[in-house]
Amino acid sequence: MIEKLKEVKKAKDILQKLDTKRKKLVLESIAYEIIKNQKDIIEKNQIDISNAFAQNLKKSMIDRLIIDKNKIKDMADAIYDIAKMPEPVGKVLAQWTTKSSLHISKVATPIGVIGIIYESRPNVTSDTFALCFKSSNITILKGGKEARNTNMAIVSSIQKVLMSYDLPKDIVTYLDISRDETYQLLKQNDTIDLIIPRGGESLISFVVSNTTIPVIKHDKGLCHTYIDKYADIQKAIDISIDAKCRRVEICGAMESLLVHKDIADIFLPQIKTEFEKRDITLKGCQKTRDIIDIDKANEKDFQTEYLDKILSIKIVEDTTQAIKHIQRYGSSHSDAIVSEDKTQAKLFLDAVDSACVYLNTSTQFTDGGEFGFGAEIGISTNKLHARGPMGLSELLTYKYQISSEGKTRA
Amino acid sequence: MIEKLKEVKKAKDILQKLDTKRKKLVLESIAYEIIKNQKDIIEKNQIDISNAFAQNLKKSMIDRLIIDKNKIKDMADAIYDIAKMPEPVGKVLAQWTTKSSLHISKVATPIGVIGIIYESRPNVTSDTFALCFKSSNITILKGGKEARNTNMAIVSSIQKVLMSYDLPKDIVTYLDISRDETYQLLKQNDTIDLIIPRGGESLISFVVSNTTIPVIKHDKGLCHTYIDKYADIQKAIDISIDAKCRRVEICGAMESLLVHKDIADIFLPQIKTEFEKRDITLKGCQKTRDIIDIDKANEKDFQTEYLDKILSIKIVEDTTQAIKHIQRYGSSHSDAIVSEDKTQAKLFLDAVDSACVYLNTSTQFTDGGEFGFGAEIGISTNKLHARGPMGLSELLTYKYQISSEGKTRA
Question: Which of A4, B338, B385, B394 shows a CA-CA span of 20 to 30 A to B368?
Answer without folding.
Answer: B338
